[in-house]
Amino acid sequence: xxxxxxxLTKPCEPPAALAYLAASLAAHGHSxxxxxxxxxxxxxxxxxxxxxxxxxxxxxxxxxxxxxTALQSSEIYNNVDRYRRAVADINRILEMAGKGxxxxxxxxxxxxxxxxxxxxxxLRLASAEYEANIFFPYFSKRLEELxxxxxxxxxxxxxxxxxxxxxxxxxIGYLRAYHPQVKIIxxxxxxxxxxxxxxxxxxxxxxxxHLIAGQGEGPLLNLLGTQRKPEHVRPSxxxxxxxxYLSPGFILPYTTSxxxxxxxxxxxxxxxxxxxYQHVAPNTTIAxxxxxxxxxxxxxxxxxxxxxxxxxxxxxxxxxxxxxxxxFARIDSLLADRExxxxxxxxxxxxxxxxxxxxxxxxxxSMHKGISLKLxxxxxxxxxxxxxxxxxxxxFGTPAESxxxxxxxxxxxxxxxxxxxxxxxxxxxxxxCSQEVSSLEVADFYEGDLSLYRSFTHPxxxxxxxxxxxxxxxxxxxxxxxxxxxxxxxxxTSNHAPFMKESKTEKLVSx
Length: 511
What we know:
By secondary structure, the protein is of the alpha/beta class. Helix content is 40%, strand content 14%.
């Protein structure tokens, strides 16, 4: 079997899904070849880039290789301005390359000006017009090499984001044209969301042979005529660790759980898609990380969980990994213990991502977050005091919020600005399959049969336009908040944040 990670996603670390799938298939006696066509395809664009006439593009082209090398070393992460300039110049190369194909291309996105990944007819059109895809010269050659080597009868695509959809279907179209005997399998986060819709009616019959929701290991093995064994399988990064990712060393992705142990928050996909929670035993996690770090020599471990469980956090402090790590954690009583936070720091925890969402208690209660602002304040202070960076996620425009509540969020962040290392600001989108849709007056958000969200009439008149103006003209203009936002790594955001030197925490990179 051949499994492919398609363009385009942030090119800073290997796709964990491929490492887990390959290891599971191998453990059950099936050969599997995996390929990160995202990082390979982006380097193809870098290698074939041509300079444009404007001053910025000339500079970006001239310094391209130097800037790529800089992102793969440590020094540039100690200087925010140099880092931002290097990333902007690399991104300029992609932006200019995409223009000739009618694309808005960046280090984090692929947007076709004439087609939408929310419309199945456009995805089918992308498959029919595969030769027009910007990556076609590379993926056509690379797929042939992989199929010849692997002699695969099945090709799977891991489709997790809208930014991957057009390229995924272009490759599917190519395979249908040149290898019609190959069975095509489509899975990943985006596919899971499609299949969870109660009115799903498969528009890809004749193009895709199998669509898989959720974890793919069991369904893939069933397709191959094998029953999945209950034993835990450690992921394998052997064929991915030498890819030329844009990070200062290898980042090791690992998940200590699947799903969410809280699973009570309103509007959460984990609830609407009814994803089951599965927890890897903490002792197994520690053993896996020990083996994987020895095999891959990572600079950083990225824990992929929706929220790392308290039991796993405790295990990490008792038997620390040998390299720094970061991931999502719930704001809870465990992190309210400063001494425990100190042990987390000693275990190598460089940053925790925290889904605060709002600085108004009534909004938090309406979302069933299960946290108090008093607790959040204590947790932020503890992390700051021990030197763990915090990457705080805020969500504006939820049904319970008005301008007044948003102002309280602004005040909360200003009052805690010294303890907030990074901020992610998002405007609320109502998931199509959310259980709360029935309680709101809704309409189509985007045109398309694959649309993921619905528009809604805000109960308090706090519409998206007003929310956006508030963020741009008020929230981001706060002196304290602007200072936090300036540290956020463009395009790479939280994936590069642990490497950034900033005044509130110790720097991670020491090489």
